[in-house]
Structures are given as C-alpha cells and as structure tokens.
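Retro notes, item 3 of 5
We never archived the inputs for the zinc ion complex last cycle. Fixing that now. Sequence and ligand:
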Amino acid sequence: MASRDHLRHTLSVLTLQNHFANMVVHGDARSRRKEHDMRAAFKIMGTTDLFTDCECCHRTHLRSTVALQPLDQDGSPDGELTYYGTGCAATAMGWSSYRVRKAARYANYEAAIARRTELRDGARSALPRLREFRAVLLRRMEAGEDPATVAAAHANRLGTAMWRYDPARRAEAEDAARGSFATGGLAAVLATYDRYLTEMTRMSVVDPTAVTY
Ligand SMILES: [Zn+2]
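Structure as it came back at the time:
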C-alpha cells in the first residue's frame, strides 16, 4: 500500500497539465509500476540543441538532448538539470522513446507559451514608458537641444523600457540607440525607438497559445 501511495504521488508530479499527456503517463505507469518505484524520478523539461552530449552514456554530437529535472522523494526539484539522449531518458524514466519525445515536445510547447506570456505582459508594461520617452525625444529634437546629450539620455531611456519588456535585451537596445546616433543622428535614434515600438506593440496583443513548434 505504501508503495502504491508513493507511486501515485510520483505520478502526480510527473503528470503534465495536458489531458493527452496525462493518459500517456498513467497508461505507462500501470505496466511499469514496479520498475518506476525503484527509479530516480525525473520531470521532462523539454528538448534542447544547446547541449548535444548525453550525460548518461556520454555519446556526443546528438542532434538534441532531453532536459531532465531530478526530483526528490517528495517530487520537488532536486539538483541541476541533466541532459540525456532520448534513449537514455527513456530508460531512466521507464518510458518508451516515443513517449519521451512526445512529453518533451509538450514541455517545449508549454515553455514557449510561458515565454510568450512573459513577453506580452512585459510589452504591456513597457509600452506606456516607451511612448512617453519617444514623445520627449521628439520634443527635445524640435527644441534643438544638443544631439549628443539627447542621444545619450535616450539610449538609457530605451534601455529602461526594454528592461521592462525583456531584461536580457536591455544592452542590445542601448547599443542599437547609440549605434544609430553614430550613423544617422537623432533621426536614426527615433527610428530605432519606432522599431522597438513596433515590436512591443505587436507582442502586446499576441495570443500566447498560438505557438508553432
Ligand atoms: Zn545516453
């Protein structure tokens, strides 16, 4: 009975929030209950081509690997992600390779939705600032202020707006503003603002679930 309860618990951890994946997990577990109890538990986080060596059998130059999150007895994350080839991931989980690929694809899909949701919300938060900064930039251009001073300030402002949208791209946006000033003056900085405005406007109304993968 204890092992049954433990299995149920493990299953609830492994269960993906997808009806189809759910059926796969439970269907598989029925036939593999015994092996499952003896195995380390993992959660499939997705596939990646950033790591192409299997950490299990050390095969190299795989097309992609499956990212596995080790779980402790309670089903909480336990340690760092580990990257296995599909075959080794299947062995580790007691699943078929087909099921591993399917679960990994679904995890990728979920991650893509989460990422798009994050960007959409970031865009909604950043857009009012960016519009405001653009208006100020335009005013300062029309007032004939010193272009270098205006450009420096508005490279920073673009950076702070970008930080709300997608923090990892803050430096990219600041560099883009500085670079455009160097080649095309404030008019080019304004064009850079407009490029980011267009991107954020598009992302602010995106449907996060409309992901192709
Ligand atoms: Zn391997």
